[in-house]
Structure formats: C-alpha cells, structure tokens
Amino acid sequence: MLRPFLRAAALVLTLASPAAAELVSMQAVQPATRVGIDPTGRLSLNGGTAMTLDMVQLEGNRVAFRDPQSGLFLRAGVGAQTELAIASPHIRSWETFELIPNGPGYALRSVQNGMYVGADPANPRLAAVWGTRGMGQTYLLLPVGQQAPAAQAAAPGSFSGNWRLHALYANGRPMALDAQALQQAQITISRGGGIHGTSGCNSFDAAIILRRGQHDVTDFLTTRRGCHGVTGQIEQGFFSALTGASLFELSPQGQWLDLRDGNRRLLARLRRM
To answer: What are the residue ranges in the chain where pLDDT is below 50?
Structure first.
C-alpha cells in the first residue's frame, strides 16, 4: 500500500513544482494571426492583449502554460465550451496539454478531455473541443525575442466601409471608458483610403496611405470645437490612435478593425457598422 502512495505523491510533487520554463508567444497557423488575451482573460484570435506565457515542461510531451505576471496557469475547462483562460493556481489535468508536432507547428491536446485546441470561425476564443487536428488546430510557439511572420499591410480599400469605435487601449489593455460615448466616435473609409469621421465632438478628415509596408494616416484635419469630460478623453485617445497607427489590421471575419503601432501594440479597436 505504501509504495503506490509514494508514487502518487511523487507525481503530485512533480506537477506542483514544474521544471524549467520557456517564455513563448503563440500564433495560429490558420488563420495566420497571433493569439491574444481578451478582457475576460480568455485566449482569443481577436485578443486585445498579446499573450506571453511561460511554457513549463512536464513529463514526456506534456506542458503547462503559466502567466508570468499573475502566476496563474492556463486552464482548458473554463465555461460550458471548455474555453482556454488564465484561471488556475495549480497544474492538474485541465491545465496540462500534450504538445503534438503538426505541420509547421504544434497541436495542443487537453489531457483532461482528449480534445484539441482550436477556434471556430464564428467564435475567435480558443477551446478544447476538436476531435481531430488540422491547420486550424495548429500553433507556432515562438520564444520571446523571435519574431513571428509580420502581418502583411493590406491596401486601404480592403477595409473600406463604416466603422464605430469599440475600445481604446493603453499599454495593450482596454481603457475603462463609457461604451455609449465610445460608440459616438465613427469613421468612414473609402476604397481610395480617404477617411471622414467624428470623435463624438469634432469631425475630421484624413487619408490612409500604404508606405514601405506600413499604413500611414496623413493630411489629418479637424474642427476645433472644445470637448470636455469623457468625450474629450475619447477624442484625444482616438485621434492619437489614428495618427499613431502603423497597421490597420482586419479580423479574419472582417467584423473588427484593429489599429496597432509599430511594435504591434493595440491602440484602438473598431467594429463594422
């Protein structure tokens, strides 16, 4: 009786005291986009905050992922859809993944339910619900410092249309601003790259051009009405995001438009009207 107990205790100690960890970021292969963390802490292809996690080597091909800031581990069993989120203080079966080579990257299989991690085109959140693995369940795990393939800056006509401001970000995190006031900020982008819009206070005109593989907002002209309170704060952040953006990045479904700076930090997110 004592020997099986000792073996079980050794296994618990191994899981509680993980071995060496490597700081990695994750990028989906199909669609080719980075995996981020949305405001609820769940992993998402449309996540506002870039994901950087310690990949902890366990036994064999098994790994766990730990958030270096909070110390919490990635869990595959969050909610009815077994979504992935930074949620656990420990490593057990829901926090353990098998790392399986698959094409150019790896598939992640939950040890708890045996399902592969992937994202449905209709829902960008990652979940362990897939019975088979393909390119849609394949991820590049890139050591921090190694650059992922750069997003290709598309011609402005590819994201033409009407857009409403959904969120502003500071240091990659969404700012706590009134949602109704945010939605008053809107822009229309023409196929030629012309912009006309309003901050909810002042109207403005500008143009997006593609220069050396990056987007550049030029000829920015605005009315001069004084804006105060939350409306003024939103205008300042919105105008700063527009003029500071180096990449206008369209989501795979075409519903969201992200404005990112030269370091790919998220500045603003707009939703198609």
So the answer is: 1-18, 147-149
